[in-house]
Specification:
single chain; 306 residues; alpha/beta; 3 domains; 9 helices
Length: 306
């Protein structure tokens, strides 16, 4: 199967990037055509090229849009392209994306990014291409016009560049807590620092959450609600279901009763002054199940500690 990465959210050589999570593939999946060099068939032309295949198993895996190329075995030209693909002569595909929305927010900026972030787009077609100018070759559709970036056609791509660069940089710097004259390197360093700090806080919160769950489980285990061999099970349950759900579950579990609770359930309520006050039929039970109380009464009766 000719599985390929069609797009990622990485910064491309033009300085902008396309968020994979924002790519809408629903319409494309109803007609997943595979083109050659983004050329759509035009009637009446001598060099008309029909679609050369389709894309199957289109899916998002993490930050990647992935699919499998299926070439039309009944089309001579498609078979030529497939042969070159199988022989490693052609290795690149390009996503044809219609731009829906962009965002210049600093929190979306990555190191090395100088352009905007395309947050929402629509996948119109996928093409096999011979040469790509960047790591993720793209064909962008904007206001009804196709911009073949992989062919070096930079016409009308100014909408991808952060507008009013100096003013925008000042605003970004201030929002990041820097002086308005901060350089691009300082701004990007601050962004990376914030990202790292957020990760540290997230890790700390996760550590605290796990510690709270472990403490809750340990308390329940020490109370005799379950054996030590079940401790890991309840910790994992808490990590998945959450602290409150785990707490409710453990509260519903009763602590096992002691044999003495059944032999003499009311003995704990009785108070005797001396050993002589204890009924003969309860004396043996007291000595076995409450040795501390037995020793206290014995000492009070005979003046000798056991």
């Amino acid at each position: 199967m000719n599985e390929v990465v069609i797009s990622t959210s990485a910064v491309n050589s033009y300085g902008f990037r396309v968020l994979t999570e924002g790519i809408d593939t629903s319409q494309y999946e109803r007609n997943p055509i595979l083109l050659w060099m983004h050329n759509r068939p035009m009637r009446g032309t001598k060099d008309e090229v029909l679609p050369i295949g389709r894309v199957e198993n289109l899916r998002k895996e993490g930050d990647k849009l992935i699919g499998s190329l299926v070439f039309d075995s009944a089309d001579d030209f498609a078979k030529q392209i497939e042969s070159k693909w199988q022989n490693g002569i052609i290795k690149m595909v390009s996503a044809g994306l219609e731009v829906i929305s962009t965002d210049e927010s600093p929190e979306l900026m990555l190191p090395g990014q100088t352009g905007t972030t395309i947050t929402k787009s629509k996948l119109k077609e996928v093409s096999v291409v011979d040469i790509g100018a960047n790591d993720e070759a793209l064909a962008l559709y904007h206001k009804g016009e196709m911009l073949l970036l992989s062919d070096g056609n930079h016409k009308n791509i100014d909408f991808l560049t952060i507008k009013n660069s100096q003013t925008q940089m000042k605003k970004i710097a201030i929002q990041l807590g820097l002086a308005e004259g901060a350089t691009e390197s300082e701004i990007l360093a601050q962004v990376v620092g914030i990202q790292n700090e957020n990760k540290t806080l997230k890790d700390a919160a996760e550590k605290a959450r796990k510690e709270a769950i472990v403490n809750l489980v340990t308390t329940a285990q020490e109370a005799g609600k379950f054996g030590a061999d079940k401790k890991d099970h309840f910790v994992k349950l808490g990590m998945v279901a959450g602290f409150e759900t785990l707490k409710t579950t453990l509260e519903c579990m009763h602590t096992p009763s002691k044999p003495s609770d059944f032999i003499n359930p009311n003995s704990g309520d009785k108070k005797w002054e001396t050993l002589s006050d204890v009924p003969t039929e309860e004396l043996a039970n007291l000595k076995e199940n409450n040795p501390q109380e037995y020793a206290r009464l014995y000492q009070k009766e005979y003046g000798i500690a056991l």
